[in-house]
């Protein structure tokens, strides 16, 4: 407290991923560095899908992903000012246009899967240097999506409240794209192939990665497959963060893993994702938090009931929380409302009342009483890797 003002102090971060792209003259970063970013972001989205949180970021884009250090690959997600929780969706106009999911464009109820769509767009942009879908408006955005992915499935358009904005329904029940009022011409559906955009068989975007280590056709096929699963029109079948982390794109051979680096410097851009433990268990696909038994050996424990969270990368999610998400998030760390458990504290220490950090309930009440129109409260959630 300072002069009766509650002050929150945060670490100083480096530039964002858009700035990083600009530093490459929009030629993109290596596939290995893209993999490093992808694994951290999937891990962060996995955390946000925990039952205690179920937070939808709603504005995931390169500008909202910051480097911790300009010469390292560790990143942090920022700006939760548009975020909401499942069941408390309060905005219809969300997500920056280039990263806006089909369900938001079409007026279909959305969930945490919209962040996975944004992630797919971000990963392609990080490697190619250019936005995958760079629409000038929502109609243009939808047409650019159709150029790459083809027409949305009929069952998706049937439930869409805004389908008529983009499509005409024929007497037989099928849909076709509306003719643009401005006369702009588009390529036929699926004529702009994703594999050509990322350069699966041509040495990467523009052939710039030809013969570079970690940029083989096999590497690109894995990347293409992951992106396609992230850009599934149907949010029910779109890949989740859990299954994203199990994807072959993140599985590296022992030879490839020997030459790794965390640097974002173009001179040593051969970074690869840290190896993760791939469980053979197959939990049901849903947007609840999933923990496979084989992953428990790499954990940091967050205490509420028996929740145990696997973390495979060192990460920190900076949460700029609105009044819609703050109370639940605070409750996650306050099993008794008398203490806030430091998430770095092992479960046995917390249960025994050991070396965990504590915050009195009065401080929590002061935090909750801050007028949200004067201050958007932020909460730092630390996630550390146990080596």
Structure description:
With 387 residues, this protein is an alpha+beta fold. It has a domain at 15-250: Transferase(Phosphotransferase), domain 1 (Orthogonal Bundle). The chain has helices at 17-23, 31-48, 102-106, 113-128, 138-149, 154-158, 163-166, 194-198, 217-230, 241-245, 254-257, 326-332, 347-351, 361-369, and strands at 55-56, 65-67, 75-77, 84-85, 167-169, 175-177, 299-300, 309-310, 315-320, 378-383. Helix 2 (31-48) runs antiparallel to helix 4 and helix 4 runs antiparallel to helix 9 (217-230). The chain is globular and about 65 Å long.
Précis, in short:
By secondary structure, the chain is α+β, with helices and mostly antiparallel strands. It has helices at 17-23, 31-48, 102-106, 113-128, 138-149, 154-158, 163-166, 194-198, 217-230, 241-245, 254-257, 326-332, 347-351, 361-369, and strands spanning 55-56, 65-67, 75-77, 84-85, 167-169, 175-177, 299-300, 309-310, 315-320, 378-383. It has a two-stranded antiparallel ribbon. Strands 2-3 form a two-stranded antiparallel ribbon. A two-stranded antiparallel ribbon has the order 5-6.
CATH superfamily of the domain at 15-250: Transferase(Phosphotransferase) domain 1
Low-confidence stretches: 257-261, 266-387
* Overall shape: globular
Derived structural class: alpha+beta
- Encode the helix/strand succession as letters: HHEEEEHHHHHEEHHHHEEEHHHE
The CATH architecture name of the domain at 15-250 reads Orthogonal Bundle
First-residue to last-residue Cα separation: 36 Å
Q: What's the rounded overall pLDDT mean?
A: 75
